[in-house]
Amino acid sequence: QYAIEVDKALQEIKADSNMAAADIILLQEMDPKGARRIAKELGMHHVYAAASVSPQSKNLFGNAVLSRWPIVEDRILTLPHETLLTGHRRIAVSADIDLAGLPIRAISIHTATMIMDQQKRVEQAKAARDTLGGFEGPVIIGGDFNTVSEYEGTLLRQTMRRLRLKQVRLPEGPTIANKYKKMPGEIPVLDHIFVKDLAPGSRGIATEATASDHYPVWAVVGLPPPAPE
């Protein structure tokens, strides 16, 4: 959250066997120093881009992709629609990763909060989705989609399915500790992982983590078996 508790975030990643083993990490609300530090401590390549200056922390505010494999190309995706109060635009950061000759695209996304109209937030996710049209390899898109209701989560899944992106179904429960970032009566599931041409295995929500108001979510995915000839 706002790249403030970077030391604690590193401790929590290293202490959790699932997160410590991660080959790809998608970060949001980061500044360049924090993203660089986490990547260096974990021995990972990384790409970072800032969307704006946070009005809360006064630090740069953006996304990062970290990878244990080389990142051969990266892109900054400016998402549509300005935030009403500040005029800021949200972004996604895309990294093409070389897994021993196999290209994988990983996208770290952070859409607007519920201050923005629900349909516009879904359109932000669609804009990131639409950059995948010419990419042939496996894809991972994850991050804070700010889906504050179950209905909005359904709209998001429908949007992603149109390019064969499947949601990694996380365990039941909230992905954020802040009970106010939701619609009344809803379980606050704001964070999601979508994949294409990857087979989901185990997955979880690290509800013991306290470095952010969001809980880290993780998933094990693998290449599907080749189709029989």
3D structure, described in words:
This protein has 229 residues and is α+β, with helices and mostly antiparallel strands. It contains 5 helices and 11 strands. It has helices at residues 6-15, 17-20, 32-42, 118-130, 150-161; strands spanning 24-30, 45-53, 60-67, 71-78, 91-99, 102-110, 139-144, 166-167, 191-196, 199-205, 217-222. A 6-stranded mixed β-sheet has the order 4-5-6-7-9-8, with helices on one face. Strands 1-3-2 form a 3-stranded antiparallel β-sheet, with helices on one face. Strands 10-11 form a two-stranded antiparallel ribbon. α4 packs parallel to α5 (150-161). The longest helix has 13 residues, at 118-130. The mean pLDDT is 93.
